[in-house]
Amino acid sequence: MGPTLDLFGDDDTAQSGREMLGEQSVVLRGYALPDAAALLAGVDAVTQQAPFRNMVTPGGYTMSVALTNCGRYGWTTDAHGYRYSRNDPLSGQPWPDMPAAFDDLARRAAAEAGFPGFAPDACLVNRYEPGSRLSLHQDKDERDYGWPIVSVSLGMPAVFLFGGHERADKSQRVPLLHGDVVVWGGVDRLRFHGVMPLKDHPHPLLGSRRINFTIRRAG
Ligand code: MD3
Ligand code: FE
């Protein structure tokens, strides 16, 4: 039932724009829309200091998703493995500061999803172009899995794959649109997930790109 048909206010999914994906993962539809301009300005500020780049995995594959980071820790991959580092390997400099708009949104969204006291120290910014994809993986490089991850999607839509605790478990397909925020924590924190190859449906603000950033506590 869509919001305009919810005449009696008893459809809390449509009412709040909140969709449970798992027991402790929730999509907040359009939650970032009021802050979209500030968030995009933040992405620009970060990428001026630390440009998007296509990193290589330990298996020797160049990622189709380009990435950069901001905050105290940034996620990197190279021939030697995956890790969080204090400095950008391209420049040798610390990663750019986390924009206040990222930090503020992440704290509010985490609290909204039942994770009060979230104090992020890392943000991985991904850039997708048509054909870019992210194969099924787990996010396991953070120190404490008790903290959630907050994800913000901007630009072109994507089909997100939300799997189970084993790689072979069946995945749910979840569309993620401009302005959607997802919070993943608790029992869902280590579930396999990925993104299907992006189709070219140009977005009015971002053209043929999708930006996803995930705000985390890594250290
Ligand atoms: C579910 N990014 O950067 S965000 C990643 O759209 C990543 O760029 C995807 O997976 C993207 O690692 C998906 C949603 C997401 C992020 C972390 C999760 C879902 C998650 C951690 C655990 C479970
Ligand atoms: Fe991930």
From TrEMBL:
Cofactor: Fe(2+)
Binding site for Fe cation: H137, D139, H193
Leading EC class: oxidoreductase
Keywords of the record: Dioxygenase, Iron, Metal-binding, Oxidoreductase
Cofactor descriptive note: Binds 1 Fe(2+) ion per subunit.
Source organism superkingdom: Bacteria
PROSITE patterns assigned to the protein according to its UniProt record, in alphabetical order: FE2OG_OXY
Binding-site residues for substrate, renumbered to this chain: W75, Y82, R83, Y84, D141, R167
Domain named Fe2OG dioxygenase: residues: 119-219
UniProt GO MF annotations: broad specificity oxidative DNA demethylase activity; ferrous iron binding; oxidative RNA demethylase activity
Residues annotated as binding 2-oxoglutarate: N126, R127, Y128, R210, I211, N212, F213, T214, I215, R216
EC code(s) of this entry: 1.14.11.33
Glycoprotein listed as a keyword: no
GO cellular component terms, A-Z: cytoplasm
Biological process annotations from GO: oxidative RNA demethylation
Pfam families reported for this sequence: 2OG-FeII_Oxy_2
Protein name: Alpha-ketoglutarate-dependent dioxygenase AlkB
Lineage, broadest ranks: Bacteria, Pseudomonadati, Pseudomonadota, Betaproteobacteria, Burkholderiales
